[in-house]
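User: I'm preparing a small set of examples for a lab meeting where we compare how different chains pack in three dimensions. I only have the primary sequence for this one, and I'd like the structure in token form so I can line it up with the others. Please keep the answer compact; I'll paste it straight into my notes.
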Amino acid sequence: MQKKTRYWIGVASRDHVVKGVNGGFAQLCHGKETPLKKMSTGDWIVYYSSKKNITENTPYQKFTALGKVIGDTVFQYDMGNGFIPFRRNIDFIKIVQKHLFIR
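Assistant: Understood. Below is the structure token output for the 103-residue chain.
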């Protein structure tokens, strides 16, 4: 029996999402391993960004990335200063945002 594809939502500031997209990884819940282990190869993740930058409170409120989980490995990455979060490889797709105007 084939496993059902699941869909996940990650919430992060746009600047953090851009780092993940550029690096081809997802990092969730401040680097926790558990949510990433629940994902399976072929699942999808969409990121929502409530603000543009982690250090500012300017609202952004947009979906900012969409990608497919690749591989079965959850791994740690040393970001320095003792912070070693868990990550998972993601194949992000290019999204072109268009504005919809209703008149």
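A couple of notes for your slides: The chain has one domain: 7-92. The longest helix spans residues 14-23.

User: Perfect, thanks.
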